[in-house]
Amino acid sequence: MRNKIEPGRITSGRITFGPIPSRRLGRSLGINHIPPKICTYSCVYCQVGKTLRLTNKRQVFYDPEEIRTRVVERVKELRKQGERVDYLSFVPDGEPTLDTNLGKEIGLLKNPGKGVGLGLDIPVAVITNGTLITIPEVREDLKKADWVSFKVDSVTERCWRRIDRPHPALNLSDILSGMIEFSKDYKGELNTETMLIQGINDDEGEIKRISEFIKKLAPVRAYISIPTRPPALKLAKPPSEEMINRAYNIFRGVINRVELLIGYEGNEFAGSGNVRNDILDITAVHPMKEEAVREMLKKTGEGWEIISDMIDRGEMIETSFAGSRFFMRTLPEREK
Fold first, then answer.
1. Could you write out the three-class secondary structure of the chain?
2. Which domains does the chain have, with CATH numbers?
3. Verdict on whether the full-model pTM lies above 0.85
4. What are 28-37's pLDDT values in tens digits?
């Protein structure tokens, strides 16, 4: 069965991807340590697609030593190419805290051991929806990261279930309380991200409630985002420009630093030299605009026939969103 995961087994593709241009993290080397798509949520806007296995149970997915080896090898390659890496980022095909070994993996990347050629100069980031923050082991794992972002799309039950579509065993009140408790003890950089979806969580009352909750977390930054890449469900559309501006002003009224994530992050994707594999690895997690794909091909001297061949083989799909063409690796959870 596709959804059955054998502990410690590499299931598909490379563990690392990028670096990719990140609006929050600069040049981010992604770590994909959750197979597609296992998550505690099935968000209407997720760029990876629909959740195949909705779960709130932690488990082992990969060997932590294998993750360390793959990341170290990739960083070495990038340094030889003169490429910069600002963060090692756990941004997988599902919820990163579902990985029982997350804390160990963070520790290995921050202290990889003698002779591996990777120092302690690259901070580690985890982008999480925060649903498992009530578990003590999860809190301890996340405390090891230098940079953590919590998803806060809603603070009311009905709206939360409409936009994030959580596992039925999850309790919103417990999650929000857990985030507050974590924020009191965490020594790294805590951030939040709120995805606004037209007709779901973009009304003024809900935005005010979200901002008041985030104020309690005292994050370094509170990000407001909108769908900029093809979502899991076509109903997930960005709010009006007027509503985005209103949300920003509401947040700014109670939170010290607020930033909008509504623009294109750019085309500065790094590759390993095998452009076919690079594009497949990146687009499994991060759909790419046509211009970004063309830029990667140009760097390697390859032509568009590689993309056409991957589409013909069923390895990739082409779609459109907000007036742009996007290319994504073919995964069963993605809606064409």
1. CCCCCCCCCCCCCCCEEEEEEECCCEEEEEECCCCCCEECECCCCCCCCCCCEECCCCECCCCHHHHHHHHHHHHHHHHHCCCCCCEEEECCCCCHHHECCHHHHHHHHHCCCCCCCCCCCCCEEEEECCCCCCCHHHHHHHHCCCEEEEECCCCCHHHHHHHHCECCCCCHHHHHHHHHHHHHHCCCEEEEEEECCCCCCCCHHHHHHHHHHHHHHCCCEEEEECCCCCCCCCCCCCCCHHHHHHHHHHHHCCCCCEEEECCCCCCCCCCCCCHHHHHHHHHCCCCEEHHHHHHHHHHHCCCCHHHHHHHHCCCEEEEEECCEEEEEECCCCCCC
2. 16-267 (3.20.20.70)
3. no
4. 898 989 988 8
